[in-house]
Amino acid sequence: MADHGYRHLGSHAFGPDLRVERYRLDNGLRLLYLQDERAPVFCYETWFDVGSRHEQPGRTGIAHFFEHLMFQETESLPYGELDRRYEEAGAEINAATYLDWTYYVINAPREALPLVIATESERMHRLTLAPEHIESEREVVLNERRQVVDDDVEGAASELLFRTAFQTHGYGHPTIGSAADIEAFAREDCLAFYRTHYAPNNAVVVVVGDVGPAELLGGLVQAYGPIAAAELPVEDVRPEPPQQAERRVELHKPTPHPKLGIGYHAPAFGDVDHAPLVLLNEILTGGRASRLYRRLVTESELASLVRGVVGSFRDPSLFELWLTARTSAALPTLAGEVDLLLEAVVQEPVSARELERAKARAELGSLQGLETVGGKAEQLGFGEIVLGDPCALWSRLEAFRRATRADLLRVARRYLGRDNRSVVTIWPQAGEADSEAAQ
Amino acid sequence: MFESSRELPLVSVSVSFAGGAVHEAPEQGGLARIVARMLRRGADGLRSDAIEIAVDELGGELGVDVGLGVTSIYFECLSRSVEALSDLVARLLARPTFAPDELGRLLRQTESEIVAARDDDGFLASRALRRHMFAGHPHGRRVGGSLASVRALAPDDARRFHARHYTRANAIVAISGDLDGPGAERVAATLLGALPEGEPIAYPVPEPTLPEGRRLVCVDKPERTQTQMVLGTLGSHPEDDDHIALIAANTAFGGSMSSRLFQEVRGKRGWSYGASSSLGFARVREAFTMWTAPAVEDAADCLALELGLLRDFCREGVAQAELDHAQSYLRRSYAFEIDTARKRVGQAVGRALLGLPEDYHARYLERIASVTREQANAAVRRRLSDDRLWVSVVATADESAAALAGAIPDLVETVVVPFDAE
């Protein structure tokens, strides 16, 4: 359909029973719409194709900082009015920023659709960025940083691991930013960021729930149609060069147990190797029957926690392993055992039974969370912004089903080399180590 | 309790037993949680590793949730596996082995987890508050137990707790998802079929009391750049006739981003990433708490501000506009309390476990809408107090304790405890 201010680009199956419709407004704003009438509610998400990967040294954290500013005053909404109106309507609001993206989420009763469209389009281009509120929000963000990094052992360790592993690519920047950078942002920096990245042609609106297409499309065209597209900058991507040697760093923190964080450079979310590596991670760390949990937590009792995750990012990211040792003395043995267990999957194929278990776990994990309108909207938006495929979840399920033992052997050999990894060791500060476990 | 939802090929099941930390002997802290976690570590001739492999192969996820009054065993699985997984879980529920070697392994792991929890400042602040505010009362117990209590547990302790609490008369089964009615009945019959009949277990807890006076506990931890701060006094009881009015008043005071507490602490001053107040729920009166996390340099000022806000709240209550806003928010956002089958079934289970009236949820919106300002403020005056109060703060004591104490008028007691005390 044309000449209505939008085009219908296609209709795609989202699982066995649902369909997602794709539209694009004339100014480039993309819309993903999935009608779901099971409850009188809807989820409305706005994804912007900007995250901390787009930041430069000295400006780290501005994507996240700006996310906070998006809840402040606009030309027609005085300070505090955005929260108040949404709450009045019974809406729950939130937002998140990460390496590749920033998104805003509104879960609301169906009657609130006109309010949501008006408010979300308003803040896409009419924030006023009052200096006094930038200052108060700066304090909030510095407090958030203290909470999730400075006073949080795992947060501090994760920041260090990514900084060590990514020395060129923007994935090495902490999404929350350094304290010095957060303190230095000027209003002009925020305005420049807003004008550069918050444009309809850099955004995807995702709507899932009990709203009709005519009301939605009419409302969107009227509210967003007048917003001008921006000339988007060409991203200054700097791919991470292949790592040539293992990197090791240490951290001393007031923590009772030593910890180990290991990050192997890993494939991008859209890479054919990604799904097999996720399955390999399931075999290594997923659940109590996994190899690392069984050996390190259950049998040898060297570790109290084992966790693994393969990053789901647009560019090559990290396969992270996190382990907590039960005592400082156990840490070297634990590290050695981890190496042996990883070497085993490099040397020999996993068993067919292990692979089937991993597939069952991956299938369950993929479907969990799709129960709510918010869960569906998140999958649609994430798939669109990272892969350009809102139905990526379902093609990914197929990739899990297709994966073979040979695929897992290939990715183990390709990614699990020691030269390809960075290791962070977190030691308890003197006097705090093993205060009880040794008794 | 069951509701069918055929949208996804998943089924969620929980079996809840009245049996939690308050049902333990005081010296056996952590027993309820240990019993629940032991189920998957050997049962009916199955070893621990065989159970874990079976759960994974069935595309299942099995977990336990143990609280003060309730133990819930829950699983979610691909619907093609629900009968097989129900068979397995039924064996775990009815015939756990409690093998000494497995118990020993779990106790050592639990000790390690208790120590590891010292990394979590938010937990430390909440824990210190409850330990002092509910001192000597079962609600002051740590659900997971202490190092000393866990070390003392034996297989026979676990067997006795299991035999008394894991019975049909003491269980509620909740099922939602990709099943029909007869299928759900089969699952429920399977899960309960091998359990003894037993008897319903009461909630053996007296009403808590809180002495007059404001008290401070500072959890001393090195190198804090930020404090975690929780203020607590006694709050609501679901059987109070002003229970709903108090919920509305609390929502206006600290239950949303437009609330007075959030706006004063974060909106105007940026002192904390979050700021909220909440009302706990149990079969006896639970805590009313206020939470913030200000930087060390703002902590004393933030505490003084919060105490002033609490004082004004207790004396003057909320304004009509604040109450109107809270009521609108509570009524309209209620759609998200019941937008999935799992939530609706969960709500019914919660009502049964708390002993709430049959029509509690059915009448909730009507009761929220009918609260007047006079009722809301009368509930606040009657139930909350700013001079029977504990303040719990995780901070580096040398740097912060004196300033924090100075921010509390008429402070009657200050306690400094090391962060690794428990």
Please write out the topology.
The complex is a heterodimer of chains A (439) and B (422).
Chain A: E1 6-14, E2 18-25, E3 30-35, E4 41-48, H1 62-69, H2 81-88, E5 92-97, E6 102-109, H3 113-125, H4 131-150, H5 153-165, H6 179-184, H7 187-197, E7 203-209, H8 213-224, E8 247-253, E9 259-266, H9 274-285, H10 291-299, E10 303-310, E11 317-325, H11 331-347, H12 352-367, H13 373-387, H14 392-402, H15 405-415, E12 421-428
Parallel strand pairs in A: 3-7, 8-12
Antiparallel strand pairs in A: 1-2, 2-3, 4-6, 4-7, 5-6, 9-11, 9-12, 10-11
Helix pairs in contact in A: 3-8, 9-12, 9-15, 11-15, 12-14
Chain B: E1 2-4, E2 10-18, H1 31-38, H2 48-57, E3 60-66, E4 70-78, H3 82-94, H4 100-116, H5 121-133, H6 147-151, H7 155-165, E5 171-177, H8 181-193, E6 213-220, E7 228-234, H9 243-254, H10 260-267, E8 272-279, E9 287-294, H11 299-316, H12 320-333, H13 341-354, H14 364-370, H15 373-383, E10 388-395, H16 397-406, E11 411-418
Helix pairs in contact in B: 1-7, 3-8, 9-12, 9-15, 10-11, 11-16
Domain count of chain B: the total is 2
**Order of strands, widest sheet of chain A:** 1-2-3-7-4-6-5
Biggest beta-sheet profile of chain B: 6 strands, mixed
Helix content of chain A: 40-55%
Distance between the termini of chain A: 74 Å
Helix content of chain B: 40-55%
The global form of chain A is globular
CATH class value of the largest domain in chain A: Alpha Beta
Strand content of chain A: 15-25%
Low-confidence stretches of chain A: 433-439
Walk across the major sheet of chain B and give the strand order: 8-9-7-10-6-11
Keywords:
heterodimer, A: 439 residues, alpha+beta, Cytochrome Bc1 Complex, Chain A, domain 1, 2 domains, five-stranded mixed sheet, 15 helices, 12 strands, 21% strand, disordered C terminus, B: 422 residues, alpha/beta, six-stranded mixed sheet, 16 helices
